[in-house]
Design brief:
CATH class: Mainly Alpha
Helix content: over 70%
Number of helices: 5
Number of strands: 2
Radius of gyration: 26 Å
CATH architecture: Orthogonal Bundle
CATH superfamily: Large-conductance mechanosensitive channel, MscL, domain 1
Order of helices and strands: HHEEHHH
Strand content: under 5%
Strand order of the largest sheet: 1-2
Largest sheet: 2 strands, antiparallel
Distance between the termini: 78 Å
Structural class: mainly alpha
Oligomer: single chain
CATH topology: Non-ribosomal Peptide Synthetase Peptidyl Carrier Protein, Chain A
Length: 125
């Protein structure tokens, strides 16, 4: 039973998953720090407060903390923007540079024929 457990824990997928999880936590810490230390001060410049959690209203002794929702929504948008600008866009640029013209080989015959005709027309000018 101990050997089976060792085989399970040391299986490639488990180790890769553990590494991905740890890297994800580290990346989340960096993104959260970016938003908290750089983006939210900009929000504070614009609105006068970096945190709206103190905004509430009460109805029949029930406290509605709408400020917390506003702060969380702003942080979500800021985190999504940071991930898009600093991760997604650069990765797309890198992937475009790394992809080879092999994709043209996968072009349908009709599209290839159209491209050849356009090239012939341009050459005839």
């Amino acid at each position: 039973m101990l050997q089976e457990f060792k085989d399970f824990v040391l299986r490639g997928n488990i180790v890769e998953l553990a590494v991905a999880f740890v890297m994800g936590l580290a990346f989340a810490a960096v993104v959260n720090s970016l938003v908290e230390n750089l983006v939210m001060p900009i929000v504070a410049m614009i609105f006068g407060e970096p945190d709206f959690r103190g905004l509430t209203f009460t109805i029949n002794d029930s406290v509605f903390r709408y400020g917390s929702f506003i702060t969380d929504a702003i942080q979500f948008v800021a985190i999504a923007a940071a991930v898009f600008v600093f991760i997604v866009k650069p990765m797309h640029a890198v992937m475009r540079r790394l992809t080879h013209p092999a994709e043209e080989e996968g072009m349908p015959d009709e599209e290839r024929r159209h491209q050849e005709l356009l090239a012939a027309l341009r050459a005839g000018r």
